[in-house]
Amino acid sequence: MATPYPEAAPASGAPGGKTSFMNLDSNVGAMLCYIANFLCCLGVVLAIVFLFTEKENRFVKFHAVQSLFLAALQIAVGIVIGILGLILSLALNAFDLSWVAWILILGLRFILLIVFLALWIMGGIKAYGGQWYKLPIIGEFAWKTVNK
To answer: Is pLDDT above 80 for 16?
Structure first.
């Protein structure tokens, strides 16, 4: 399968191969890095395992790295939103409106949940389809990490 990116992937990175860990098809292993996160962060564990066990299969390694970057971004955004909520709550507490901050932050967290769920599902679908799909923002970092 051809890659839409300037750097060509080696034949061993093609989705038709097998993973070193558990002997899964490459596209299934790459998909599990994303989708398994719905089972108590199992995808992060699998992504770390694939990152260290896949020496030749760049397809699985790319999706493992991209999945880890996505998890790190989700954690970082969650921390920033939590701090923002605390600051907003303290600021509005002077006017006895801290409940407004709570509702605003809850709504923002819900919107971000939907966005990250969509990114996890889209990444899993693209990986299962054998595509070297770069997620917005973090995809280029993952690509450079795998290709250095």
So the answer is: no
